[in-house]
Amino acid sequence: MPATKLDIHHYANASDAHSHDQQAQLVFGLNGSLELEFGKGGGRVQHGNVAIIAPGERHAFFSPDQGNCLVLDIDSNLTLSGLTQERSRQQALLEQTQLLPLSDEQSGLVSSLAPLIVAQPHLADASAALLIGALLGEPPAPARLPLARLNQYIDGHLAHPLGVADLATVSGLSASRLNHWCLRELGCTPLEYVRRRRLQRARQLVLHTDRALTEIAAECGYSSQSAFTQAFRRYWQATPSQLRQQQ
Questions:
Q1: CB 3.0-4.6 Å disulfide test: which of 9, 41, 52, 228 passes with 222?
Q2: b/e 34-69 (16+ beta carbons within 10 angstroms → b)
Q3: Are residues 34 and 43 in contact, defined by beta-carbon separation less than 8 angstroms?
Q4: Cβ distance 141 to 17 under 8 Å?
């Protein structure tokens, strides 16, 4: 098994139990819930918390609503690039089975990484470093992207075609530097980030308005409802109609 594995697990509503002898496992709640039982306790994993399962800890799990979780399998002795904390702190975190709450900032990081690792699994090590660093309280590196300005421009032009040149101008960077810092700080290309903002806005409109899906598709920059539905399903693991029905 590779030293680091990061993916999204879709849990069936059937119970199971196992252990991971050589790796720790971190289970971050995304959608739905996962009931966990382990030697010294247990609890419910859902959006806003994380279960840390130490190597060799046998645990049972069951999802009553077929929940989704972002799951990180990692060697507790691994030194992750980009972390400045000593390895002993990482080991202490990963070698104690526990259920921890997440801050709003940590939850936001989990939500932003979830769709990214589906599309770009080669970023598992970099994403793992971000997650572990956030749990250890690792201070973030100085930002180079004018993110507030960039977000304001993207959100104001969701219905219109946006190119890298437009975003570079708004950011005050060359196209190549914009691409570099987007990959470094956001973990995706500029246009992938635009797509993420479109689909996050679309989800808000689907859940909190009764507007027609064709209108939402157009407002979020999709030329057809079918293209919108396909993109939405890939990102949120449900179509807009299914999401409304679930709510």
A1: 228
A2: bbbebeeebeebbbebbbbbbbebebebbbeeebbb
A3: no
A4: no
Q: Tens digits of per-residue pLDDT, 97-118?
A: 988 888 888 888 898 888 887 7
Q: What are residue 5's DSSP bridge partners?
A: 73
Q: Are 19 and 58 in contact (CB under 8 A)?
A: yes
SS3 222: coil
Tokens read off for 85: 């904390």
Give alpha helix (H) positions in the chain: 87-94, 104-119, 124-136, 147-156, 164-171, 175-185, 190-208, 213-219, 225-236, 240-246
Q: What's the maximum distance between 2 C-alpha atoms anywhere in the chain?
A: 55
How many CB atoms are closer than 10 A to CB 74?
25
- Per the rule left: phi > 0, alpha: psi between -120 and 50, beta: everything else, 146 is beta
CB 45 within 8 A of CB 34: yes
Locus of tokens 């990959």: 183
Residue ranges of domains in the chain, CATH in brackets? 4-136 (2.60.120.280), 147-246 (1.10.10.60)
Residue 202, both tokens: 């679309």
With contact defined as beta carbons under 8 Å apart, do 190 and 164 qualify?
A: yes
SS3 for 68-133, per residue? EEEEEEECCCCCCCCCCCCHHHHHHHHCCCEEEECCHHHHHHHHHHHHHHHHCHHHHHHHHHHHHH
